[in-house]
Amino acid sequence: MKKIALLGAVAFALSACSSTWSGVKNDASRVGDKVENKLERAGDKVESQWERTKEGTKTRWNKTIDAIKAD
């Protein structure tokens, strides 16, 4: 009888561990998706800022060239 009770307790414990593991995997998956989304948005913002920097630099360079030519 004790063996059956012990076997039942072990089966219950393993079942609980399985549920916990499944929950951990689901949580990790959701976190991974959120991180991926945030990194993609950050990359888009960096790219946008880089384009603005290039345009600003080009404009300032052209103004500098024009000022040199005017002298």
Structural class: mainly alpha
The count of DSSP E runs of length 2 or more, i.e. the number of strands, is 0
User: How many structural domains can be distinguished in the coordinates?
Assistant: 1
Q: State the separation between the terminal residues, measured CA to CA.
A: 104 Å
Estimate the global geometry from the Cα principal axes: rod-shaped
- Low-confidence segments, given as residue ranges, are none
In N-to-C order, the SSE pattern is: H
The overall pLDDT average reads 88
Radius of gyration: 31 Å
Organism: Alysiella filiformis DSM 16848
Keywords: Signal
Protein name: Lipoprotein
Signal peptide: 1-22
Walkthrough of the structure:
The longest helix has 69 residues, at 2-70. This protein is 97% helix and 0% strand. It contains 1 helix and no strands. It is rod-shaped.
Secondary structure topology:
Blueprint: H1 2-70
Signal peptide: 1-22
Protein name: Lipoprotein
Organism: Alysiella filiformis DSM 16848
